[in-house]
Recover the amino acids of this structure.
């Protein structure tokens, strides 16, 4: 028995030296080139079908981030202005029927500034509008989304019963493959 085993080992060794590999059992053979190419083609078709989902996810994530950031900037300014006393200079209308203040979020300083000069870039634009209202002057008669009857700046202080604080924040990012910048407008009334 030992001789047969030794003879079998020598036969295998001679085949390996001759450059041939021992034959594999039928169930353990590898893939052919055609099978690999077909599998690759199927994988490529599936991958190309999934790519639009990833690009749409990127666009949606960017839009969500823009909405969140613009909402946070608007809410923080509304809360700051709402917490001020009714007669605060920041809430006064000095000319016309509304006081409009425009600020820009500077990329260089990461602060809100009244103007942006080159090479700095405005990442966000925040427009604050303050309007004074008296009794009965807050009805939207023409249904344009704006309240009718704001008081002029020269109206007596005793006639001012409410102030509308409106904050609009718009992204400075232009449109592109990932979509344009987002905008949000928040409004609140501060009663006397």
């Amino acid at each position: 028995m030992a001789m047969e085993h030794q003879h079998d080992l020598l036969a295998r060794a001679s085949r390996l030296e001759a450059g041939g590999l021992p034959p594999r059992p039928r169930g353990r053979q590898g893939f052919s080139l055609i099978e690999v190419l077909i599998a690759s083609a199927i994988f490529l078709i599936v991958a190309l079908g999934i790519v639009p989902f990833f690009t749409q996810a990127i666009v949606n994530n960017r839009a969500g981030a823009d909405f969140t950031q613009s909402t946070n900037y608007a809410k923080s300014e509304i809360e700051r202005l709402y917490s001020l006393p009714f007669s605060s200079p920041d809430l006064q209308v000095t000319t016309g029927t509304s006081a409009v203040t425009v600020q820009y979020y500077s990329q260089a300083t990461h602060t809100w500034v009244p103007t942006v000069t080159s090479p700095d870039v405005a990442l966000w634009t925040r427009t604050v509008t303050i309007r004074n209202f008296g009794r009965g002057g807050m009805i939207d008669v023409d249904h344009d989304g704006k309240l009718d009857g704001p008081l002029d700046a020269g109206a007596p202080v005793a006639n001012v019963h409410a102030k509308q604080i409106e904050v609009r924040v718009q992204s400075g990012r232009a449109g592109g493959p990932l979509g344009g910048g987002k905008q949000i407008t928040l409004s609140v009334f501060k009663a006397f």
Remarks:
- The chain is about 35% helix and 20% strand.
- The chain has a mean pLDDT of 82.
